[in-house]
Design goal:
With 120 residues, the chain is of the alpha+beta class. The protein has a single domain, classed as Thiol Ester Dehydrase, Chain A (Roll), CATH 3.10.129.10. 28% of the residues lie in helices and 33% in strands. Strands 1-3-4-5-2 form a 5-stranded antiparallel beta sheet. The longest helix is centred in the middle third of the chain and has 16 residues. The radius of gyration is 15 Å and the shape is elongated. The chain starts with 6 loop residues before the first strand and ends with a strand.
Length: 120
C-alpha cells in the first residue's frame, strides 16, 4: 500500500475566516457571498493559498515525517467554491523519481494544475 492514498479535506467558511485572520488576506470574495457574486464568481471561494496549504498538509500527513517538503508549486485553474454548508477537496499523489505529482479536485473538477512537490 502506497503512503500516498487519496484523502479528502473539508473546507468550511469558518476555516476561510480563520485563514484570513492568519494570513491577513481579508478579500471579501472569500467571506461575503453577495460580493463574490457581484464580481462574477459563482459564490464564496477558498483562498488559493489555503488550497495549496492543504497539499502541504496532505504530503506531511501521508509521509508521517514533518519537514520533508522542499518545494511546492501549482497553477490555480478553477476556484474552490465554498457554499454555506462547506465543501471538500480530494488530494492524491503519484510518485516519480524526484517529485510528487499531485492531483487536487473539488466535485470532480481539477482545481490545481501542474501541482508538484519536491521532497528533501
Amino acid at each position: 500500500m502506497s503512503a500516498f492514498e487519496p484523502r479528502t479535506y473539508p473546507i468550511t467558511r469558518d476555516a476561510l475566516r480563520a485563514y484570513a485572520a492568519a494570513s491577513g488576506d481579508h478579500n471579501p470574495i472569500h467571506q461575503d457571498e453577495a460580493i463574490a457574486l457581484a464580481v462574477g464568481l459563482p459564490g464564496v471561494i477558498a483562498h488559493g493559498m489555503y488550497t495549496l496549504a492543504l497539499v502541504a498538509r496532505y504530503v506531511e500527513e501521508s509521509l508521517g515525517e514533518p519537514g520533508r517538503t522542499a518545494e511546492i508549486g501549482a497553477k490555480f485553474v478553477k476556484p474552490v467554491v465554498v457554499p454555506e454548508h462547506g465543501t471538500e477537496v480530494e488530494i492524491s499523489a503519484q510518485e516519480s523519481a524526484d517529485r510528487l505529482d499531485i492531483t487536487v479536485t473539488c466535485d470532480g473538477v481539477k482545481v490545481l494544475a501542474a501541482c508538484r512537490v519536491r521532497l528533501t
